[in-house]
Amino acid sequence: MSLHNRSLLWTVALFTAVNARYVMYLTGQHNHVPDLSLVKDITHVALAFIRADVFNQDRPEEWPLFTSVDAVRSQFAPGTAVMVAIGGWGGTDGFSQAAATASNRKRFAANVKAMVDSTGADGVDVDWEYPGGNGEDYKLVPNVNKSWEVAAYPKLVAEVRSALGPLLLMSAAVPGLRRDMLAFTAETIPQIDHALDFWNVMTYDLMNRRDNMTKHQSGIIESLDAIDAYVDQGVPAEKVNLGFPFYVKWFMTDPNGNCNANPIGCQTLPMEDPSTGVDLGRAGAFCWADEVPSELVNSYVKAMSQGNYDSERGGHYYWDPEDNIFWSWDTPHSIARKFPAIMHTRGLGGVFAWGLGEDASDWTHLRTLTVEYRRYKRTNNKERKHGKDEL
């Protein structure tokens, strides 16, 4: 891609950042893109993933994406920025190696730039979700052994930004639970923010298998706490994107956990091995594009027909008293409620979802998110124009 085209895309990306971002992850597991009429508002697409360890090699010969940037670009409106997401939930080791030394960081960053040049991408999303610890291997590699990553993470993203230069985009996916924000402190956040164009705060999976009490996996109260944790430590609200999950989660509750009295905040069964952290199969998730696992069909049907909205904490849920299963998911109603409660009250810069293809084939959640995004953008533009007129 020519420098002229990159400059044009940067101008478009900067304009959309001012007028609210609409970011979608597109995954290899669900590489489904609907008709252009349903995606024309999307401003950024992040292709997930290329593993982090690929960039630790000397002169990698290929960039193992599930598709090509050009193919994806043709499916979206002109000017949509196409980025490559690096890492993911299981990518801890590759990032640790990359961040360990100055020479490793330079090699990693140089390879990221080479990948962007080769693929024609408009930038990258750094998806090192748990620097400093609490990753997938947190039981086998204690957090104390990763404490050095807290200082190394800002250095790595700074090196990548330096390699990319000012015309390419760079974002980061960051954890939504305070217990996982080990590398995101009042000291490190300003350094990290200097390298990023925007932050994708993962305001989902806010209940996972490490919990022992039920709560909403993407509720309003939990999401506000995540957003405030970053903004209070220096992330500009206009650079924050609120995350939406296009999937449903379930958790097995303790038959003696008193869920009858209150399904929110009741005891679950242990969901991971206390020694190894291995998943015990008592919790899970599947997206709207997937078939419902056969063993969950009966409970799922009840959840979809009898689910409730918790107006106190802001989340949709169902507890199945027969199978002792707690369900948590976003509905069109709960998506819409997040805009006045979170987007407007905090003045955030955009939204994103994991992930676009996960909402196939009726695209119910995508349609709702698009409607609310449009409304939010119109409101922001009116407020900005009104303020300018006053001046």
Automatic annotation (TrEMBL):
It holds the Pfam family Glyco_hydro_18. Residues 1-20 form the signal peptide. Residues 20-376 form the GH18 domain. InterPro entries: Chitinase_II/V-like_cat, GH, Glyco_hydro18_cat, Glycosyl_Hydrlase_18. Its EC number is 3.2.1.14. One of its GO terms (biological process) is chitin catabolic process. GO terms for cellular component: extracellular region. Keywords: Signal. GO terms for molecular function: chitin binding; endochitinase activity. This is chitinase. The lineage of its organism: Eukaryota, Fungi, Dikarya, Ascomycota, Pezizomycotina.
